[in-house]
C-alpha cells in the first residue's frame, strides 16, 4: 500500500512538472515570436541539427553562421529542451558580460552543473561569486604565481627534450604538460609517478564527460565521469587530511586555501570555505584551466608553423633574451617582458576562438538590441563572429599579430572574456605558454606532417581535430 502511494505520488509529481514545463515553454515561445529564428520540432527542437553541426569540421560555428545567414545577427533556437537566443556584436557583449545588477548568471548544461558541483565558482552569483573570486584570485595573481615559475621552466625544458628527433601530436603533449603544471600548482603533484597517473586518468574521464548527454546510467560517459569525480574527491580528501594534520606542508594553492580559508583554520568567518567548496573549486580550476590552455598552446604552435615570418619575428624576441642572459636560465623578469609573444597569443585566441560562445541565463527581464528577453531564457554570445568582424579585424582569417599593436575598440576582443566573469587564470595561462614557447623557438624547428586543416574536435573547447602532428628537430 505505501509503495502504491509512493508510485502515485511520483507519477503525480512528474505530471505536474511536465504540465508546468509545457505551459512555461508555450509562454516563452509566444514571448519569443518577435525574435527571428526556428524552434524546430516540438520537444526535440533543433537538437539533431545542433549535434550534427557540432561534429562538423567547423564545429558550433557552422550552426551559428548558417542561422545568421538566414535570420540575421539575433536568432532563436531550441536545443536539448532549452529555448536559446543567440546574438553577437560588441554592444551585446558589453551588456551580457558586464551583466550589471545581477542581470544574468552563467548558464551551464546539466552535466556541467553535476560535474563541477553546486558550490563551484561557475555556479555562484552576486556576493558569493565575488568572494570566491577574491580567494582564488590571490594565488593566481602574478605575485602568487612567481613560486611556480621554476617548476614550469624545468618541465618545459624536459618535455621539449623528449620531443627532439620524434614525431608527436602537439595536442596530446600540450595536454600532458598543462595538466602537470596545474596539478603541481594546485596540490604539488610530482610530474611523474603513481599519484600523477591516477590524477590524470580520473581527470581525463571527468573532462570528457563534460559535454556528454545527461544520462547517468551505467555505460554512459556521464556515469563514468561522475564515478571518476568521486575518486578524484577521495584523493583530494586524503591530501587535505595530510595537510591539516601537519604531516605534509607545501605552500601551494591548496595550502593557501586550507591555512587561510578553511572552516577549521583561523581568519574571519567571511573568508572561510567548507571542504565541499574547496573541492568543487579545485575541480573547477582544473576543468576550466586545462583544456583551454592546452588548446591555446596547440593552436599557437600550429599558427607559427603556418606563418614562418611570424615565427621568425618571435624567434628574434626570444633569442635576444637568450643573448642577454649569456647562458643563464630564463628569468622571471624575462617572461614578464615579451611584447611580441603577447601579441602572438592574442592573435591565436582571436583566430582560434577557443571558447566559441559564452552562455548566460537571464536572471530578470531586460531588453537588448531592441529585443525583449525574459527571465530564465538562455542568452548566448557568438564570440567567433565578434573575433572575425572585418570592420575591426581586416582580412579576419589572416594570422597577423600586428593587429594588436594599436588599442582595440572595447569588447571587440574577448580571448579571456570580460567583466566579472573574466578568466581568473589569465596570468597562469600566459606564463605557461610564454615559457614553453621560449624554449621551443630558441632550440627547435618542426614541420607538420599533414596539410593545413582548421577542422575542430566536437568538444566545447575548440581544438585541432588532427591534434597537429609534427616532426621535431633541434636547431
Ligand atoms: C589560454 C587559456 C585560457 C583561456 C583562453 C581562457 C578563457 C576563459 C574565458 C573566455 C572565460 C570567460 C567565459 C565566460 O565569460 O563565459 C574564462 C573563465 C574562467 N577561466 Fe579561463 N581561460 C584560460 C585559462 C584558464 C586557467 C589556466 C584557469 C585556471 C587556473 C582558468 C579558470 C577559469 C575560471 C575558473 C573561469 C570562470 C570565472 C568565473 O565564472 O568567474 N582559465 N576563461
From TrEMBL:
GO terms for molecular function: heme binding; iron ion binding; monooxygenase activity; oxidoreductase activity, acting on paired donors, with incorporation or reduction of molecular oxygen. Gene3D superfamilies: Cytochrome P450. The gene is LOC111433437. Residues 1-18 form the signal peptide. Coiled coil: none annotated. The keyword Magnesium does not apply. PROSITE patterns: CYTOCHROME_P450. GO terms for cellular component: membrane. The keyword Membrane applies. It is found in: Membrane. One of its GO terms (biological process) is sterol metabolic process. CDD domains: CYP90-like. SUPFAM superfamilies: Cytochrome P450. This is Abscisic acid 8'-hydroxylase 3-like. It is a single-pass membrane protein. Belongs to the cytochrome P450 family. InterPro entries: Cyt_P450, Cyt_P450_CS, Cyt_P450_E_grp-I, Cyt_P450_sf. Its cofactor is heme. Heme binds at residue 423.
